[in-house]
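explain this chain.
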Amino acid sequence: MRNLFNTKVRIILVLAVLLAAGLAVVAGVTNQSLPNMIVQGVMAPFRAAGTALMDTAEKYYGYMFRYEALQAENEALKADIAEMEDVARQADSVNRENTRLRNMLGFKETHESYKMVDAYIIGWSSTDWSSTYTINRGSSSGIEINMCAITANGEVVGLVTEVGLNYAIVKTVLDSTLEISGTISTSGYNGMVSGGYIDGHNTLLKMNYLPSDSIIRNQDQVVTSGSTVYPRGLIIGNVVDAGFEDTGVAKFALLETAADIDSLEQIFIITEYTNE
């Protein structure tokens, strides 16, 4: 047992001598001291770990920098798109206004006695029985109660019922309390047109008091008969259905409004006119 221990000691000593000799040779070749080489050997794993950590940090910083740059570019592109969409909306609005004004000029050429004030709709109130607009013109623009409102194509919108200095309320043709004397242009039959009375058809008008023997056809045009309030010949709507009143002594007709009440932006108030 003692001999075995002595043998192990000898082997360790031999290996230590060989290692020392090897380190001495390497130190002589590289001109480095033996302690310095030992320190470098010990520090080598730590240097490798530090280098790997620095590489990872540099990659992470590069990723964050690119992410922030892409995020800034994305925000800039969103701003550009929003600006372009706003310009497109403004262009569409101008185009629609130009179309309305061209139509109005054409309408005035055939109605030279009409004097009108243009107005934009700034509010709308609607229920099953009532329908009103608020417009941005009032008494300061020459608007008064009981003036007729029309579209650029001469379609009846309604009647001014309230006026302030810089605003007015227009009761539309769909309001149940507004009645207009109308004439079926193809046959000359007269009746009273109003809105708000037809169950399930609150966007339609009803023309009452038509003769029981009258012949009424779909798409017959109904125009104003003419009065101190409504000029003659303005388009109210077109017939979509007809039938007999409950009494059986008169007929009625259902009309689709000529003016698209749900989508109007601008209307025109007739301030003066002469019935032809």
The domain at 114-276 is CATH 2.40.10.340 (Thrombin, subunit H). The chain has a mean pLDDT of 80. DSSP finds two helices and twelve strands in the chain.
